[in-house]
User: Fold these one by one.
Assistant:
Number 1:
Amino acid sequence: MAHMREAVMAALSTVNDPELHRDLVSLGMIERAEVDAAGVAHVKVNLTTPACPLKGQIESDVREAVQRVPGVQDVAVTFGAVVRAPAQSALPGVKHVVLVGSGKGGVGKSSVAVNIAASLARDGARVGLLDADVYGPSVAHMMGQGAAKVTATADRKMQPLGAHGVTFLSMANLSPAGQALVWRGPMLHSAIQQFVKDAAWGELDYLIVDLPPGTGDVQLSLTQTVQVTGAVIVTTPQDVALIDAARAIDMFRKASVPVLGVVENMSYFVAPDTGVTYDLFGRGGSRRLGEQFPLLGEVPIDIDLRSDADRGLPGVLAHPDSAASLALAHVARTLAGQISVRSLASLPDQLTVV
């Protein structure tokens, strides 16, 4: 049936990845393509991320193309995923480091970071989460591990904690509860280097980093310490937040860190009793930033999202069908797509077919 396989591969070479705009064969995304005695074509596609936002479209396009091959009676499509590292990996074992930042506090940056990490892990990616907000760490509490303590591995590296399919580190798990850290810049820089390079992160597709608000020492230390794939900016719709978000974008530009997209958090509120939508902060202001950078999503105000965070459970897992959780899952998948596009741009033009 070699000729049938060649015909199926030829058909697949006409199917483009909708984000990467190249065909699946030249991208090396076809792991298996064969036709059995009953005329059923079995195709396995390795996506560039398990959180692929356009998986359904790829499946439909593959079925349509292969079904046209003479002798094919049916098409069975299965999926795997291999997250591709850029030409220069971020850290040993870590393919992508993604910074989640904001120009000001109070915009829900940590909540967005936690839910992005949990959503990517739920989709099947290997995900780490670093709480780099040293002065105001909140990730440990949101992950339900506020009282846990970080231990050391046999080779004296920090062992990240785990919850909800995500490995994470936070200063809250290293210092006494309620203790304020009064550190100057050099101490912050040393701590960030230890978090990144002296922790046993293992093999990760994505390391999501929750930054402190603003444009200070921690941001600069991270961009100097590790190869960063890109940054996500979290803002709220009102003008004062957008002005600060623009400053954060400018900081990343000066540090040569690509901005992967903008998340508009607290974008609107839907009254649970009437279903009426209220734009409490003037929804849609982030679209002005989105003229330069992708708008990854608009996340509504949601009481459950807040209460879930307070009890240590990411909303995308606790209430996956809520409007806020669906918006955050869309943010995570769209972000994963943006990362795939940038990874492809850094790789050679021709990839080996599996």
Number 2:
Amino acid sequence: MLVALHDLNLAACHCDRLYVLDHGRLAAGGPRVEILTSRLPAEVHGVTSEVTTDPRTTAPQVTFLPGAPHPAETAEAPCHGAATRP
């Protein structure tokens, strides 16, 4: 199944593999634990974040740090995450 999501945490919670697009081009793709690092939001959205593991779901959890604009609030926020789950 292919699902297009704009929420990294929702994608991380429900999808095994993630594919992140940046301006229509593939920026990253693979298993969620390999893709969701603090480097991804910095490179694609230009924001600072911290990635931890949710203790209940074991899914990566992205937290945008104070002072960093949320991706939806930035002019450069066209990242369209596409996620899949077999």
Number 3:
Amino acid sequence: MSLNKTPTANRLHIAIFGKRNAGKSSLINAITNQNLAIVSGFAGTTTDPVYKAMEILPIGPVVLIDTAGIDDEGELGELRIKKSIDVIKKTDIALIVISSDDGITTFDYEVIDKLKKSETPFIIVINKIDINDLNLKLENEIKSLKVPYIKVSALKKIGIEDLKKVIIKYSPKTFEQPSIVGDLIQPGDTVVLVIPIDTGMPKGRLILPQVQTIRDILDNDAIVHITKERELRLALSNLKQKPKIVITDSQAFMKVSADTPNDILLTSFSILFARYKGDLFKLVKGAKALRDLKPGDKILIAEACTHHQQPDDIGSVKIPRWIRQNIEPDVHFDFYSGRDYPDNLKEYKVVIHCAGCVLNRKEMLSRIEASEVEGIPIINYGVAIVFLHGILDRALKPFPEVYYEWLEN
């Protein structure tokens, strides 16, 4: 991945909902001015959510999500509807496409209700005005909802530019994550990144969180030095200026902590991403659940992406081994990977989640909330690793509010 490409997880996620044949795919083609989505006169052409990352002027980098019709039928149709509704968890702003000759249906109201409950902003798009203009009854019904709406013809490309302006106006201003490390440093500060090169490192490149951290440091006019864990002592001794902070891969934290003087702040990429993508307070609270594990407890290890597992895989091998060695040998682990998220969280004592680098912040927060609703603590890999090695206190010092909260509890 090149540095000048916005990662998918950092793009505005625009999901398009509506009945079959309301014109959702046609709308995507009109917005993008490309034939990205298959258009057909037959209902149900789109069967699963389709994601397309792209640049749309003047909106900028976005992910458009085309969903299956919310009025799909049959047993398979119900599964498609569920997948469409699940998209809300990662949606920054939604477009509800309504055919001008159909009006707002019970299916549309069900989606509207779910969007409101999740506090997801949405726009009603009345399509096919080239066939039937908006009648007064329907317009009054839409106005009673007190939400933005706009009339378009996806086929004739009428109103599309105005729709883009409405999307910009009503998109959440905070859909992008907070700074990764920029709020911890000042212009001119020195930051040292410790990046081990092990069997899990992609050959010839860095992984996404490392690249994003480097970019954030440069955007904040600080100076970055990169080294492997074995060369850290030499790197620190060669610096004329003491670094403001050292950031390491979680797996090397023990050695890096031993080699980094106590007057230098120290944390990990995964802990930085715990607050960048989610809620560091809540993820740190999950450490208490690890501390209180009992024989027979079940633990869910969840990863947002699927990847080829290495013999020393962090999620499936190392973390379970450290838990059995350091806390409780008689525990059971279940493993889950992918963009869907399991519903049976109640059977687990704790969820241990990856850093979520492929998720947008809305989706990661929704996973944290899903655990919270079920009363199941959740912790991410980085927090779990440093806790299991007894150095969570030091890893949290760069974040005073979280640090003192952890010490008090």
